[in-house]
């Protein structure tokens, strides 16, 4: 299994100067790889950067390998009998080989390649949901150690899904939490299961900060006033 990360496209290097290797992969490194996989896919489908389908497949496969490795470490009994299958590797390698050999035929292969990307994305999603509940405590612990209140990790919802829908702007900084409007704040606390009857925004924001692991930071900076 290849442990070295793919090359980050130039337009994304400000966000991801480099990707961690799968050798001695840490929890923080896993989050970085997942964030990269989501970012490069969004950049490809929104035409925000010149991303090739080949780079998308490489990012999806690398994220899947990282999740598979962490799954074996965290849940050895459950995952020991389910390694990354030879069939999945064959699908990806077969998708990449014609792209490298004959780039002139790339346009005719877009539809088939997109289907393979979606198949890989489904595999990644299954692993992400498995990791979702475990990742809650990891993200909360990481966020609680933040001094600047920036670079916070996303905290999965109770159903193990991730806050990546447009209705849930990423809460990666204290300012992002502070600037949530009333409707978005209500959606967040409801999705996290924190809502109890009629509560003022300041109370809801406080509960959200507690759940994300950053209450002590905002209290210190005086950001919880109504």
Describe the structure in your own words.
The longest helix has 39 residues. The mean pLDDT is 79. The chain has 226 residues and is mainly α. 59% of the residues lie in helices and 0% in strands.
Helix-strand layout with pairing:
Blueprint lengths: L26 H19 L7 H22 L1 H4 L6 H16 L4 H39 L29 H5 L3 H10 L9 H12 L2 H7 L5
Helix pairs in contact: 1-2, 2-4, 2-5, 4-5, 7-8
List keywords for this structure.
226 residues; mainly alpha
Number of strands: 0
Unreliable sequence segments:
none
Alpha carbon gap, first and last residue: 53 Å
Structural class, please?
mainly alpha
Mean pLDDT: 79
Question: Could you give a quick summary of the protein structure above?
Answer:
Helices cover 59% and strands 0% of the residues. It has 226 residues and is mainly α. Helix 2 (53-74) packs antiparallel against helix 4.
